[in-house]
Amino acid sequence: MYLRAVHAETHIPTLRQLIRDFPLGILTTAFSSTAGPSIQSSHIPFLLDVQDESSETELGRLRGHLARANPQSKALIEAVSKNQGNGTTPSNILTEEVLVLFTSPVQHYVTPKFYTETKPATGKVVPTWNYAAVQAYGRARIYFDARSEETSAFLSRQISDLSEHAETSIMGYTGPEDSRPAPWSVKDSPERYVELLRKAIIGVEIEITRLEGKFKMSQELGAGDREGVVAGFQGLGTEVAQEVAKLVEQRAELKGKTS
């Protein structure tokens, strides 16, 4: 990730929160495989496990799953199978680093028309794009042996926890006590049906070794142009533009506290 200091976000809890708010990540792997191209990517919703939520340094672990028929799954299984018998790496852990990219949906094109200070003064302005993203790097453990109790336990927990997170945190289905619908549960489906589907997926658990975050929200601009960006987005009247305007203001305030 290209990170200018003005756009870099190094506060780990902030990066963890972006992952939880927008859990659909893009898992990218890069290694030779007979199952497909050397570089493969898949969109996967992830869970982030952290032992100490108050910690400002703990990176955590990502949990997800892929369809077994996915060519990337086949490449992952092939890669970890090469470890078997070498005596140096557990047979289901990749030796190669993997990357997961998380991107906030709060993103937008920025027209030079918003730069109310620089544009009329010099005309030296160009378009850009405002966005926020997190890149998580780490080593992946692959749960692929359908006969293994370890794999079965991981996948059962994974699909149950992911469903609960999505139903409550994303959909807001917290139950009648909150005057909301009750969340859907994996237990609502026939056990045999869930078992068959579980055999059609593999699990991925990534111990994060590095997190990089970027909030590119016009922090590099002077106050006049930045105020023009906020006013410009507010004037668009769309929900996304309003959210971008808020983030531009928040990031400007944070920049003021740290500069």
Automatic annotation (TrEMBL):
Pfam families: FMN_bind_2 (PF04299)
Source species, domain of life: Eukaryota
Gene3D superfamilies: Electron Transport, Fmn-binding Protein, Chain A
SUPFAM superfamilies according to UniProt: FMN-binding split barrel
Record-linked InterPro entries: Split_barrel_FMN-bd, TR_PAI2-type
Name of this chain's protein: Putative transcriptional regulator
Native species: Coniochaeta ligniaria NRRL 30616
UniProt lineage: Eukaryota, Fungi, Dikarya, Ascomycota, Pezizomycotina
